[in-house]
Design brief:
With 292 residues, the chain is an alpha/beta fold. The chain has three domains: 3-86, Orthogonal Bundle (Arc Repressor Mutant, subunit A); 95-161 and 269-287, 3-Layer(aba) Sandwich (D-Maltodextrin-Binding Protein, domain 2), CATH 3.40.190; 164-262, Periplasmic binding protein-like II (D-Maltodextrin-Binding Protein, domain 2). Helices cover 40% and strands 26% of the residues. Helix 1 (3-15) packs across helix 3 and helix 1 (3-15) crosses helix 4. The longest helix has 28 residues, at 59-86. It is rod-shaped.
Length: 292
């Protein structure tokens, strides 16, 4: 069964005149008649009864008109949905943003993207270093913004958007206020608030062990906002990407000896076909003037 056969039958059932139906469908009457005949062969009985100059639907024809009418309506809905998707109208887009990436730089980009593509329905998902791979490979996420200290597996394509330093975060009355930068050695003896979703976490603690720098860890949390407010209350310090700070009163200094950096990158799965919405998001992100 072909869609044009369904359409020819429905028009003929509406007009009850094969000549007018053929004109409406812009085909010859023999072509329309052949299409109806093929449907009758497939359904196993006549769809029309012809009595002299009058044409009527048979019981089978009336039944098939009801069913095929729903098929035609669903087909038209599918065509409209496909056109909207291709034209970026009501196009869904699922983007993962690593929980350690702050809003300071991403929100202005997302605001501009919405102005340029108002028809795209963007859903943001919080991702962690533990679930990001599965979510991307499964297709739950179309793409993701990740803070990466190291290169990803070759199953992914990455494009760097900007780089940022890790900084020591502390309250205004802390001894670090007098420093222009905080050497890693100056962390010795500090109360360190452990950011459990930090992608540098294992690397950082390995570095402390290598340099024999002891810190106490009184609190651990997956919540970035909780950690920052704990720092503000003088409960300890932490290391954090410089553009992830959301509490205005907090102070920070770059960490040195060694300097710790990460790249924020656009990540997609290699070989996955990209929808127009995904391609638009990636193109806008690459072309966006991220501040240095």
């Amino acid at each position: 069964m072909e869609f044009n056969q369904i359409r020819y039958f429905l028009v003929a059932a509406e007009t009850l005149n094969f000549t007018r139906a053929a004109e409406h469908c812009n085909v010859s009457q023999p072509a329309l008649t052949r299409a109806v005949k093929k449907l009758e062969e497939e359904f196993g009985g006549p769809l029309f009864r012809r009595e002299r100059s009058r044409t009527h639907l048979t019981d089978l024809g009336r039944l098939m008109r009801e069913h095929l009418g729903r098929v035609d309506a669903s087909t038209q809905d599918a065509v409209v949905a496909a056109r909207k998707l291709q034209s970026l109208e009501k196009a869904p887009l699922n983007v993962g943003i690593m929980c350690t990436i702050g809003p300071a730089r991403t929100i202005p980009f997302l605001s501009e993207f919405q102005l340029l593509h108002p028809g795209i329905e963007l859903t943001l998902h919080d991702v962690t270093p533990l679930n990001m791979t599965e979510d991307l490979l499964s297709g739950r996420l179309d793409c993701a913004l990740l803070g990466l200290p190291l290169a990803l597996h070759d199953r992914f394509d990455t494009v760097k958007l900007y780089g940022e330093r890790l900084v020591a975060l502390f309250p205004p009355d802390h001894r670090y206020m007098s420093m222009n930068a905080v050497p890693v050695s100056e962390l010795k003896g500090e109360r360190y608030l452990d950011r459990l979703n930090c992608e540098f976490r294992n690397t950082f603690f390995d570095l402390l062990e290598e340099k024999r720098i002891d810190v106490s860890v009184p609190y651990r949390s997956e919540r970035e906002d909780w950690i920052q407010n704990m720092v503000l209350k003088g409960m300890g310090i932490c290391l954090i990407p410089e553009f992830s700070i959301t509490v205005d009163e907090l102070q920070c200094r770059p960490v040195i000896d060694p300097e710790l950096m990460r790249n924020v990158e656009m990540v997609t799965v290699s070989g996955h076909r990209r929808s127009p919405a995904v391609q638009a998001f990636i193109s806008e992100a690459i072309g966006y003037p991220w501040p240095p």
